[in-house]
Amino acid sequence: MNDVAQRMLAEIRELSSDIASRAAQIEAERRLPADLVQTMRSIGVFRMYVPRSHGGLELDIESAMAVVSALSRIDSSIGWLAGIGSTAPLFATRLPRKVFDEMYRHGPDVIIAGAVQPTGTLEETADGWRGNGRWAFASGCMHADWMFGIGVVTANGNAAGGTNGAGGPPAMRGMMLPAGAWRIEDTWSVAGLEGTGSHHISLTNAPVPANHLFDHINGESCVAGPLYQAVGALLAPMGSAMMVGIAEGALDAIVALANTGRQQFRVATAMRDSEIFLHDLGRIEADLRATRALHDAQVRVLWQRALEGTLNDDALYAQAAQAAVWIARTCVQIGDACFALGGGAAIYDSSPLQRRLRDLHVAAQHAAVHPRHYVSAGKLLLKRG
């Protein structure tokens, strides 16, 4: 981990108490307050993956994910927005260089939000390209400078042919537009990660300049560097960085509760003196250490492959997704176990234990960590066998 990341982590530690004290406000407002957005900008969160050529930090993968985990440990929503906001510039690298330069002309702290599910359409008309659709889960859209959505390319209202010819998947392209071009629909009333402001965003017959289209799957990067070979390989591991941090926050919360000397109803000893409690606590920590170890190992592999120039690899993507799915499921179990150990005290809105439980369950619903990704890992194993 380099000196820049160490400095960022030191700043986060200094701010941890102040950030943690804002948890109820963040949830109630269903977004990140403007001053905390500015705090994240000043720390350098949104420039972690921005190339140095454009004033960014261009951190190695391990350093960036350590920062995201540290913020997630303090507050789930802030950590989630840090993960999404720091990774989003990778999509922008698939734009033409002139557009990328324009986006960062005022500095590296540009905030990008968007959604990767292809729930919109993009059609070329006599007047140019037009974008239509609604995209869910646009985390950070409330404070974004730019936003993007992925659309199916259509011709005369029908999906255009894909790159694989007849019978292949339809062609898809991303569309990157200033935040003001999008409509934000107030839909984020949810069970967890409430402070992320992950509303729907939409376009209705919106003009999209041709040079604002990009291919995030097969497109070439407009900037050079190990980070910019592939977008998809870094998305699921960043999710793991968030989830491990949230689970660490859950463990912190149950330890803090026990250290108050709390004695639960009809129990002979205080929680911290109970062998049953200590047994469960030790088991939970072992599970958490396992998730951290797998995440860190996967990150090391990704960075090594990035340095070797082989990050864009389907087998590596399958392995990273496999690890992310297992980590997500295990982190949910950790959150559930910490909540159960908290007893009646955990159920109140004021308890971080119920918040962490809800946040972990919502995070684990993300498509990037759906168990179906085990299928690709299974196919890969059979090929190797």
Automatic annotation (TrEMBL):
Signal listed as a keyword: no
Signal peptide, first to last residue: none
Protein name: Acyl-CoA dehydrogenase family protein
One Pfam family hit: Acyl-CoA_dh_2
Native source organism of the sequence: Paraburkholderia edwinii
Transferase in keyword set: no
UniProt cross-references to InterPro entries, sorted A to Z: Acyl-CoA_DH_C (IPR013107), Acyl-CoA_Oxase/DH_mid-dom_sf (IPR046373), AcylCo_DH-like_C (IPR036250), AcylCoA_DH/ox_N (IPR013786), AcylCoA_DH/ox_N_sf (IPR037069), AcylCoA_DH/oxidase_NM_dom_sf (IPR009100)
Keywords associated with the record: Oxidoreductase
